[in-house]
């Protein structure tokens, strides 16, 4: 199967693309990317597709999380380990408390580009191009930094490769061993009520492992985990250059990540992003916001998964806490009635962002929980499976979202606000979310 060339894709229309000043530099960067080895392998993408098929059948739960926007400066062993650690902790809580297999997917090793509501940003009377993520331009508010630079796409590749190398080392080299459950709980978490609750779960797991060892059982699953990468497929030049023909199947795969998704702002049925992703064989996601009609969802499913292949398509809903209970039922009901194979996943972050009085973008932890609860309530009422959770989080002790067990206030946001784009749950809030979702899963 061939894929359309870049000129054809751009001719269809493509939202949220950088405007590069030098087309020759773009051609050079794309040519360089085409020569580089794959970041992931087609067989790994197929394995994730099989796991998501289990999610769509109600046999597993998808946990997808990581930075709003990764930065090149953030590619350090400590940063990568901290994000992996909080996802492992959340997965352990969900698996143990809800007795359901958890498919672990990082929002990392590629999440370097961000759609923006405006092409421009104005500060103190100065207007410059908006920051669109390290894949496109620099965060510093200077004319030089804000010029889109296609060489950054090669930097995305190198940073993603380094991140994936670190993750593979951690998950196969002993760090993800279940016998490490206590060591994943660092001091600032241990001191919190949710950290103490996690310690209790870890102690129960430790006793169970000791028993298993005593009877001679020591499966490989105790010592390593399967962990996959994902990001929004936003900058067409990068995703197209990283799409390769698999030597086993002669089918195209986007080898920049195991799973890629189309955002709420780029899911136009007749435009470039849907066209490109309709040709690749990776598992793919689509963000669906409150303007999505059931007909929109059905048309996207028909276009992106015409063979109705289980595990191929995930709908990631992002309605906002105040709209989820009214907006989601019609969507789920009609898609289900048509027999569409899809995993339903809740993104409780993007519909709940607001600007605090201090000027920081933030989210209320209670709104995040309320949207997840609404997602579960809708699926329970329809007899369908609430398949997963897609969250922006960090493994660090940041102050970006208000509320939670630490009772962070708007006045606290300036203490450690480190995100370059949207606010993320910190490690304590992420763990608290995992316990609350585990309760919902038990009932589901």
Tally of domains: 1
Total strands: 14
Low-confidence stretches: none
- The whole-angstrom Rg is 21 Å
Q: Helical residue percent?
A: 40-55%
The shape is globular
Largest beta-sheet details: 8 strands, parallel, barrel
Order of helices and strands: HHHEHEEEHHHEHEEEHEHEHEEEHEH
What fold name goes in the CATH topology slot? TIM Barrel
Overview features:
TIM Barrel, eight-stranded parallel barrel, globular, 40% helix, 444 residues, alpha/beta
How would you describe this structure to a colleague?
Helix 10 links the parallel strand 9 and strand 10. The model has no long low-confidence stretch (mean pLDDT 96). This protein is globular. The protein has a single domain, classed as Aldolase class I (TIM Barrel, Alpha-Beta Barrel). By secondary structure, the protein is of the alpha/beta class. 40% of the residues lie in helices and 13% in strands. The protein is built from 13 helices and 14 strands. The protein starts with 5 loop residues before the first helix and ends with a helix. The strands form 4 sheets. An 8-stranded parallel β-barrel has the order 1-2-5-8-9-10-11-14, surrounded by 5 helices. 46% of the residues are buried. This is Phospho-2-dehydro-3-deoxyheptonate aldolase. It is an enzyme of class 2 (transferase). It catalyses: D-erythrose 4-phosphate + phosphoenolpyruvate + H2O = 7-phospho-2-dehydro-3-deoxy-D-arabino-heptonate + phosphate. Its EC number is 2.5.1.54. InterPro entries: Aldolase_TIM, DAHP_synth_2.
């Amino acid at each position: 199967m061939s894929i359309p060339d870049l000129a054809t894709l751009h001719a269809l229309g493509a939202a949220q693309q950088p405007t590069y000043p030098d087309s020759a530099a773009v051609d050079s960067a794309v040519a360089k990317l085409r020569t580089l080895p794959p970041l992931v392998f087609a067989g790994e993408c197929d394995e994730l597709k099989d796991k998501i098929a289990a999610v769509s059948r109600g046999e597993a739960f998808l946990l997808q999380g990581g930075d709003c926007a990764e930065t090149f400066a953030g590619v350090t062993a400590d940063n990568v380990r901290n994000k992996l650690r909080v996802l492992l902790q959340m997965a352990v809580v969900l698996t143990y408390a809800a007795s359901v297999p958890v498919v672990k997917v990082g929002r990392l090793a590629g999440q370097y580009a961000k759609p923006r509501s405006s092409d421009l940003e104005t500060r103190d009377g100065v207007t410059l191009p908006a920051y669109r993520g390290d894949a496109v331009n620099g965060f510093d508010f200077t004319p030089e930094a804000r010029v889109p630079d296609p060489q950054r796409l090669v930097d995305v590749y190198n940073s993603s490769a380094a991140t994936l190398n670190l993750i593979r080392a951690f998950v196969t080299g002993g760090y993800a061993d279940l016998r490490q459950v206590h060591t994943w709980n660092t001091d600032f978490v241990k001191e919190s009520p949710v950290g103490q609750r996690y310690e209790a779960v870890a102690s129960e797991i430790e006793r169970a492992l000791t028993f298993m060892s005593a009877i001679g059982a020591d499966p490989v699953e105790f010592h390593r985990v399967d962990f996959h990468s994902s990001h929004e497929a936003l900058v067409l030049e990068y995703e197209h250059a990283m799409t390769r023909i698999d030597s086993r199947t002669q089918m195209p795969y986007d080898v920049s990540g195991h799973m890629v998704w189309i955002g709420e702002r780029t899911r136009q049925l007749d435009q470039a992003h849907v066209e490109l992703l309709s040709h690749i064989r990776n598992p793919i996601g689509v963000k669906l916001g409150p303007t999505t009609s059931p007909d929109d969802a059905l048309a996207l499913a028909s276009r992106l998964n015409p063979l109705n292949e289980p595990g191929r398509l995930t709908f990631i809903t992002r309605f906002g806490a105040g709209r989820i209970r009214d907006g989601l039922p019609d969507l789920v009901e009609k898609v289900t009635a048509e027999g569409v194979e899809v995993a339903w996943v809740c993104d409780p972050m993007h519909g709940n962002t607001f600007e605090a009085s201090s000027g920081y973008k933030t989210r209320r932890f209670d709104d995040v929980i309320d949207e997840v609860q609404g997602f579960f309530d809708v699926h329970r009422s329809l007899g369908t499976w609430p398949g997963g959770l897609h969250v922006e989080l960090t493994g660090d002790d940041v102050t970006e979202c208000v509320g939670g067990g630490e009772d962070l206030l708007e006045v606290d946001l300036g203490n450690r606000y480190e995100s370059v784009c949207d606010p993320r749950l910190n490690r304590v809030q992420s763990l608290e979310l995992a316990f609350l979702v585990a309760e919902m899963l038990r009932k589901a």
